[in-house]
Amino acid sequence: MTPRRSGVLREEGARGAVVAAVSSIVVIAALAALVVASPNWPKVRAQFFDWTAFRESWPSVLHGFWTDIEMFAISMVTIPLLGMILAVARSFRGPAFFPVRALAIVFIDVMRGIPLILLILLLGFGVPALQIPGLPNDALFWGLVALTMSYGSYTAEIFRSGIEAVPESQRASARAIGLTQWQALRFAILPQALRNVVPAFMNTVVSLQKDVALISVLGVREAVREAQVITARTFNYTSYVAATALFLLVSIPLVRVVDAITQRDRERRSRVPA
Question: The whole model's pTM is what?
């Protein structure tokens, strides 16, 4: 690309960014004016945007939000681990591995067919009610198990798509030099597959960061549950706005990181010769 052509493209990109920014500001300003001009805006402002209520609820909601962060951190270990196990189980070839593949397929299909909120309720209330010796009765534990089982199934399909995207010749070449099926998968297939699925997996991470709040239905005192308790006591919904602000403080930078990773992956692929 010539320097002149590159300069023209940069100028067009800058012009487009300015137009997009101005358009966004105009739309947001129009929506804000519409909301403020509505007849019930004073009542809504008092119920949802009360600064005093915000300051009073902030410490409790923030304390609960650290529980969300802890659940997210634990899930970021357990979910990829389960997803990789299921994806590898589905990727083994040959009749000897049919039972393993069948179990993985049934597990993935069942978990993907159950709504996450329902799975959390079933495990969080059902398993402790059985009073099985040796099993924990903690609602937080079973909420994390439900998250892992549900998201692990979706992650398994992401990993499996990456494995299947690797050319069959790579597997054949690995077997030709004497590697076993497991060695070929570990040293030749998985490294390439994981690079292919990073953008898709990162989008799952963004969804997970928000869905950890669903465990609040079990009574776990995380941010949303703390906001519910405060609202039930004060009949003011500003605590929900405080919880929303905390999730946005994490999710927006995370989305930007995901977009940057996706863009870098797109550029990497464009440099690879066809």
Answer: 0.82
